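Suppose you are handed only these lines of text.
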Amino acid sequence: MSKRQLAMVIDLNKCIGCQACTVACKTQWTNRNGREYMYWNNVETYPGDGYPKKWMELGGGFDAAGDLKEGIIPAIETDYGVPWDYNYDSLAEANLLGPDETGYGKQGAEEPGLHPDREPTWGPNWDEDEGAGAFPADNYFFYLPRICNHCTNPSCLSACPRDAIFKRDEDGVVLVDLDRCQGYRYCIAGCPYKKIYFNPKLSKSEKCILCFPRIEQGLPPACAQQCAGRTRFVGFLDDEEGQVHQLVEKYKVALPLRSDYGTVPNVYYVPPIEGPVKYDANGKIITESQRIPAEELEMLFGKEVHVAINTLRAEKEKRKRTGESALMDLLIAYQHADMFRLDNAYYQRVAKEKGLPPIPLLDDRYLKGRSSETAPIEVPERGEHES
Ligand code: SF4
Ligand code: SF4
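From them, the structure of the protein bound to iron/sulfur cluster can be written out as follows.
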């Protein structure tokens, strides 16, 4: 266990599924060098198969006795989906691009026009907005943003036979030491959230680094900074004045995802309470009905979800009645900057204690391996699972 733990709270009532977080992360960290298919941050529609496909059915994590559970390595092609390109070049060569160069609208152009250069099979947002339930009276969905949970008990770390994964003492960020990693991929099988990825170009495993070079300088991770819905709070769990501590520990309205996996995740979610009501056969509102089934929320966030939902509803009502609710004010987050409590002075102290130059406290275990070569080894990858 680390001395301190950074954590993130994501308010699912405010996520609009815009993917600004996904793009912020992608452009910052994973748009090249074998990372093209990776989404360290993704936002999936729940219910849905998610990313990678059916990740909740792929094993990993710990059993009740604390032993590692068997897990499966998703296949890049069928479970993540290989990013495709478009045939702009061949259209341009044949002078078939329209006036706005989109590939559409060219006078007299014949099919085929603009199309992907491969058959798409899966992707990070494949089942967007499909959801479940009978349309139009009882259908539902919500967005579920996901990053690595920087778990207190990371099963990726326990699964690695090379001790190539470490948890930083100063903030609990979980990183891969790329010099030690040999690309065995036990970590991928071991992570129940499937939030660690294989880089086929480097033959190394890679994952979300919680933007630690930004964090150390007092800046929030790119996904949180760019969040259009102001859904994400970032701070240290032991910072009693911080929003993260208050939402998790004081009000207990932010809960970990699938805590039954046993890894003690440090991304917490404010559960959705704003789903639409149901309609009866005559099109009349069924009062106090909820479309998102309680058992689904319980499966995701544990039994505590009912207490959290009751607290959120009660505070919302109180706010309507009296105009006051400290919890609602906190969740509204009038100032975006107030959502982040990142202690730059703390990192400076850590650097001093370690005898390192001041910030940035870049961790060279992470950096060095980027240029090293590792010969690929054969690791069984599962075949296509039932769709
Ligand atoms: S979410 Fe997965 S990859 Fe991230 S720390 Fe937990 S077990 Fe490791
Ligand atoms: S940027 Fe914020 S609102 Fe948009 S999808 Fe990501 S978490 Fe949701």
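What can we learn from it? The first helix runs from residue 20 to 29. The chain is about 25% helix and 10% strand.
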